[in-house]
Each structure stands twice: as C-alpha cells, then as structure tokens.
UniProtKB/TrEMBL annotation:
One of its GO terms (molecular function) is GTP binding. CDD domains: MobB. It comes from the Bacteria. Residues 9-140 form the Molybdopterin-guanine dinucleotide biosynthesis protein B (MobB) domain. GO terms for biological process: Mo-molybdopterin cofactor biosynthetic process. This is Molybdopterin-guanine dinucleotide biosynthesis protein MobB. Transmembrane segments: none annotated. It comes from Pullulanibacillus camelliae. It holds the Pfam family MobB. Coiled coil: none annotated.
Length: 175
C-alpha cells in the first residue's frame, strides 16, 4: 500500500475494563492469519500524557499480537517516541500512513466519526449506543434488549467466533 493511500479504519470504543484492548489483540491476530497487517492508535483518556508503564503494557500487548505499530496518545504526547504539541486523530492517522498497513485500529476517541465497535460492560454503558455515531457492531457482557437497538449487530462477549467473523468480514471487504 502506498504512503497516504486509504486503508481500512475501525474504532474500538467503550468504557474502562469493557474489553477494548483484548478485542484489538484478537483482531490483530486474526488479521495476521489472513496475511493482513494492522497498526493501533490508542487514546489515553484518563487525562494527561500516558504514563510509561501504561504505554508499555498496552503497546506490548498489541505488539505481541502482531501489530506493525502501536502507540498511545494523550495530552499531545504520543508514546511511539514522537512528541508534537497538538496531535489530532487526523494527524495521527496521517502519521500512521507511513507504516502502510491494511487496517488501522483506533482504541478510544469515542466521538470520532469512523466505523466503530462499542464494547458494553454494564447497563450504564448502554447510553453509548444512543450518543455515538457510525456503530457497526456491539459486543456486550450483558444482554442487549434487541427491541431497543434493532439497527445494531449485537453480540454477547462469549460469542467470539460470531463477532470475529462479522468484524473480519466488515474490514476485509474494505481492504
């Protein structure tokens, strides 16, 4: 893929401990078995620059899963050995074009307008389904009342084979 050429983008969003990083790892591994490459931009949404230990922990998980590049951004600090005062998600995406990957996974940045999977851990998280845009799938630790959200493809966390097949089909069709 040439520098600057479009690649597929998929956001993984949800609140803390909802399974975002684990889902990103699973997607990277599955893509790798298909001969496809992935990189990850993770948003550190806890205020301030990401701490070194947090960066190493999540980036290492992404690398071990097979990511070509994995970075964590927060308060303008990108932990990929780069520091720019005003990283926007668009600038990060342009920067990641250098790695020429098939899929760019974005963990976090809930309000960005890219296709996204929402991870739900408890009932309070359901409000995300009414406030976020471009939702292509929902993976939940709790039952989702399908009559309340009939336009979403909803999966229970234990339906891994179903949601992985669905997501791979969604992203591979765009590669």
């Amino acid at each position: 893929m040439a520098l600057g050429q479009c690649r597929s983008i998929l956001q993984i969003v949800g609140y803390q401990e909802s399974g975002k990083t684990t889902l990103v790892e699973k997607l990277i591994r599955r893509l790798k078995t298909l001969g496809l490459t992935a990189a990850v931009i993770k948003h550190h949404g806890h205020g301030g620059a990401p701490a070194q230990e947090m960066t190493v922990k999540d980036s290492l998980r992404h690398y071990k899963a097979g990511a070509v590049a994995a970075g964590v951004e927060g308060a303008g600090s990108l932990r990929l050995s780069a520091n720019v005062s005003d990283w926007s998600l668009e600038k990060l995406i342009q920067f990641y074009d250098f790695f020429s990957v098939d899929l760019l996974l974005i963990e976090g940045y809930k309000q960005a307008h890219y296709p996204k999977v929402v991870c739900i851990r408890c009932e309070e998280d359901l409000q995300l389904l009414t406030t976020l845009t471009h939702i292509v799938g929902v993976i939940s630790h709790i039952p989702i009342p399908q009559e309340d959200f009939p336009h979403f493809h909803c999966f229970r966390i234990e339906e891994e084979q179903l949601y992985m097949n669905y997501l791979i089909k969604k992203v591979v069709s765009k590669v």
